[in-house]
Amino acid sequence: MLSLSRSDTAKGKAKSRNGTNGANRLAAAFQLAGLALLRVQLPVSRGARGRTKSGEAAVEATVKLAVEQLSAKCGENRDRIAILAEDETADAAVLGARAEGQVRSFVLLSGRLSPRAKEVLAEWSDNPTFCLVSSEDKTALRDMTDVYFSSRNADSDIQVLEGMGSGTKLVESWAIQFPQREPLEQTIAGWVHRELSSVGREREVSFMTEDGWKIFANLLLPDLEGKLAPGVILLHSGRSDRYVFTNLERLLVRAGFAVLNIDWRGRGKSVGKGKYFDLSKEERANGKLDAKAAIDFLTSQNGVDTNRVGLVGIIHGAEHAVAGSVGDSRVKALAILHGYVPANDEERAYLTSGQVHVMYVTSRAHKQVTETMRGLYEATPDKLTRFLVFEGGAIGYQLFELDDNFEPTIVGWLEEGLAQRDITK
C-alpha cells in the first residue's frame, strides 16, 4: 500500500492527518481478508513540477524494492501481489511495477497518472485495475475514467463517489456518510482478495521422463476451496519454449484450470541431455514421452482431477500431445495448433474415434495441413470437435498476437470440453 509522504508544513500535516484513519481502516481490512501487507510512503509532492528524472527513477526503484520485499515474505504466494496507491503515488506505482511479474492487480484511489502510466495499464491486459475517485476531483476523475475505459480486462472496475475528497480520505468519508452500508475498505479488500485468488499459485517444477530427461515447467494451481480442478498441459513448438504461453497459462488458471506449461526435451531449460537441433530424429520424436510424463505429473498434484486433462500443442508440440495421449483415458481434450498430420493409423483412429474432443487450428496458406485437418474433423462424430481456419500463413503462437480473441477462445473451448467427465455417453 503506497501513500504520500509530504513536507512537514502545517498544511502538509493537516492533509496527512485527514487520510490517516482511512489508511488504517484499509490496512485492517486487508489483514482481516488474510492478505499480507506492506505499507510504504513515497516522497511525492503535489506541486513538484521540477521533479528530475533521477528523482522519478529513485521513486520507481522504491516501488520495485517494495514489491520484491513483499514477494519474499509470501512464500508460495510470492507471485500474487496487488498494489494500492493514492493520488500521485499511482503514477510511480504503475511505472515502478511494470517489469514485476508478481504484480497482478492495482487499486488506485484518486490516481493521477502520466500518459506513459496509462499506456502501461492499457497494455497490461491480464492485470485488472480498480479505480475509485470522487466526482469533484476533476483531474483524478479524468485519469481514472481513462484507465477504466482503456482496460481490456473484464475484471477492471471503477467507482465514482461524490464529495468524498481524495486518496485514503475516500475511505474515511464513506464511513462517516454511510455508516450502515458495507465499509468501502471491505469492498476494496474483497476485490483484491478475489483477483489474487483467481490468478492461482505458480512455481517452477521439474520431473523425469521414462528415458531419463529432466523436464522443467511452470505449475499453476487455482484456489478452488476443495474442488478438483481440470488440468491442462501446454506444449510449445520446436522453435520456442514455454514462455510463448505466458498469457495463456494465466488465462487458464484464472478460469479454474491447473496448468503445467513445460519446456519439452532440448528446448528452454530442459537441455540436460542436449539441445533440440543437436538431437537425432528418433530422440526428437520421443518428445511424446515428455507429454506422457507431464500427464502423470500433473494428475499426481493435490486438487487436480485425474479424469479431466487437456493438452494444447503447437506443431511438434501438437505431435507430442497426440502421440503421448493415445489410449490415455485421462485425456479428454486436445487443442492442435498448426502443422500436425497423423504419424500413423493409430493416431488417426484415436482422433476420429470421438473418445477425445479436438480443436484443429490452421491457416489457409498451409494447404496440405489444412486439408488433412479438415478430413479429420469431418470424420469425427464428436460435436465438440472444432475446426478453425485463419487467413494468411501465420502459425501457432503467432496467432496470439494477431487475434486478441484467440487465447480466450481456446480457454472457452477447454472449459466446455473438460466439463464432461465421460464424453462417450
Please explain how this structure is put together.
The protein is α/β, with parallel strands linked by helices and 425 residues long. It has two domains: 2-198, Rossmann fold (3-Layer(aba) Sandwich), CATH 3.40.50; 202-417, Rossmann fold (3-Layer(aba) Sandwich). It has helices at 10-32, 53-73, 89-97, 115-123, 138-150, 169-177, 184-198, 246-254, 281-285, 287-299, 316-325, 345-351, 367-378, 398-402, 406-417; strands spanning 2-4, 40-42, 81-86, 103-109, 129-134, 157-161, 201-208, 214-221, 229-235, 258-263, 304-314, 331-337, 357-363, 386-390. The strands form three sheets. An eight-stranded mixed beta sheet has the order 7-8-10-9-11-12-13-14, with helices on both faces. The chain has a four-stranded parallel beta sheet with strand order 3-4-5-6, with helices on both faces. β7 (201-208) and β8 (214-221) form a beta hairpin. The longest helix has 23 residues, at 10-32. It starts with a strand and ends in an 8-residue tail after the last helix.
Provide a count of the helices. 15
Q: How would you sum up the major sheet? A: 8 strands, mixed
Count of DSSP strands: 14
Q: Average pLDDT across residues? A: 89
The rough form would be described as: elongated
CATH class type of the largest domain: Alpha Beta
SS content category: alpha/beta
Order of helix and strand elements from N to C terminus: EHEHEHEHEHEHHEEEHEHHEHEHEHEHH
